[in-house]
Amino acid sequence: MKIPIKIFILLLSSHTVFAAEGQGSAGLPQMDITTFPSQLFWLVITFAILYIFMWRVVIPKLSTTIEERKDKISNDINEAEKFNSEATSILEKYEEQMSSASQSASDIISESKSQMNDYFENLKLENEKKIAEMIRNSQKMIKLREKDSINEVRNATLETVKEITIKYLDKIPNDDQILKKLN
């Protein structure tokens, strides 16, 4: 408070000194020495009002705004860290589930392969049994037909020999005699 009073007194005393020196000066009014004390007075008053206005109104609002921004930034950072940790945990769960699903899929595939191999092995054994049975039946049929064919050939041979012997011989040999001669 002492400084503004000293400035005021200085301005007032300089006003009276400069006013006595020269009354008429031409040129710029702000450069007129006689008006310096009033200009300095209004300068001090204006700056004092501006200073008080800045000190009481503007700076508190700015500091409040800055504090709010700091709090908001801090809250946003905390929230971002929270979301980041949640995202990390979700990613870990996702990777764990993917690993589990992959393991489960490989287990299902191996189980399916095992079941498929068992099925094909059983099918192969059944088909081999069927084929073996068919071969046995075919061999039996072949043997029966072979016997029948042999008998038919024998009978045809006997008939042919009898026909031939009838033409050339008077006496017809019996079947046993003919078979002995043929073998």
Describe the overall structure.
The chain has a domain of 37 residues. It has 183 residues and is mainly alpha-helical. Helix 1 packs across helix 2. The protein has three helices and no strands. The radius of gyration is 66 Å and the shape is rod-shaped. The termini are far apart.
Query: Average pLDDT value?
Result: 85
Radius of gyration: 66 Å
Q: Which H/E pattern describes the elements?
A: HHH
Structural class: mainly alpha
Q: Uncertain runs with pLDDT below 50, 5 residues or more?
A: 16-23
Number of helices: 3
Total DSSP E strands: 0
First and last CA, distance? 160 Å
Strand content: under 5%
- Residue share in helix: over 70%
> How would you characterize the largest beta sheet?
none
Shape: rod-shaped
- Oligomeric organization of the protein chains: single chain
Question: Any chance you could write out the topology, listing elements then pairs?
Answer:
Blueprint: H1 2-21, H2 36-168, H3 175-182
Helix pairs in contact: 1-2
Key phrases:
0% strand; 183 residues; mainly alpha; 3 helices; rod-shaped
Outline of this structure?
The protein has helices at residues 2-21, 36-168, 175-182.
